[in-house]
Amino acid sequence: MEFSQEELSRYNRQMMMDGWGEETQKKIKASTVFIAGAGGLGSPVSIYLAVAGVGRIRICDFDSPDWSNLNRQILHNHNRIGTNKAVSAKQTLSELNPHIEIEAFTDKIVAENVDELVGNADLILDCMDNFPTRYLLNESAIRKNIPLVHGSIWGLDGRITFIKSPETPCLRCYFPESPPKEVFPVLGATPGVIGTLQAMEALKYLSGIGKPLKGKLLVWSGNDMSFKTFRGFKDPDCPTCGTRS
Q: pTM higher than 0.85 for the full model?
């Protein structure tokens, strides 16, 4: 796998880091990620993975942007109102980095198609806004033995964890029940913070550099700029990954 001179220039600053170099960049280029959701979280996640040179990005969203999305969903703009979000995402990401492959999926993620949509991804990025779909991604990650980076936000607050079952608690261990479905408040910078942290977790895992947030839930409060880390515990009675019959 060789890089063009443009690519070497594009990735030069990250290849300067200790332990990165051209060989690690080749690992990034050979990687495939599945990003579920092209909204508030999916925007910074996909943008930072694209510009870092992740070779293949599979991004899925069945919805289209409206005016209320534009305070945070920076993949899209007012000219894309009514355009499918995954299609819009592909356009933006291809313009940001023409050296990578972007696959846009306009399907709604359901139990019947989740494994096919995830495909041969090395990593799943949970950028959804509802827990029923998050649980489907969690189950697919376990079946396919693929790590999952979960991020969620509300107002000025956010949470993130790196899940690799059975090594870590699964998503249902952390969040046993789905919160009520509702339109929730959010400042655009909040998914910007959490989505960027998700991208960081993804790049650490794909490069093999740094320690992923395994078995820990990071909670960020934008109100007072505090970060708190909580240890996660596997629930033996978890309906998804539990070992107790």
A: yes
| Type of residue found at 227 | F
Which residues, other chains included, contact 68 with Cβ-Cβ below 8 Å and sequence gap of 6+? none
Closest among 138, 191, 189 to 166, alpha carbons compared:
138
The DSSP secondary structure of 165-203, one letter per residue, reads: TTTS--HHHH--SPPPP----B-THHHHHHHHHHHHHHH
Q: How far is CA 112 from CA 129, 131, 148, in A?
A: 20, 17, 19
Structure tokens at 174: 């952390």
CA atoms within 13 A on the CB side of 106: 9
User: How far is C-alpha 192 from the geometric centre of its chain's CA atoms?
Assistant: 12
Among 162, 170, 141, smallest CA distance to 213 is for: 162
Burial class (CB in 10 A: 0-12, 13-18, 19+), 134: buried
Q: What is the pLDDT of residues 11-62, one digit of tens each?
A: 999 999 999 999 999 999 999 999 999 999 999 999 999 999 999 999 999 9
DSSP 108: P
The domain locations on the chain are 31-231
In 3D space, the residue among 104, 149, 99 whose CA is nearest the CA of residue 126 turns out to be: 149
Q: Write down the CATH superfamily of domain 31-231.
A: NAD(P)-binding Rossmann-like Domain (3.40.50.720)
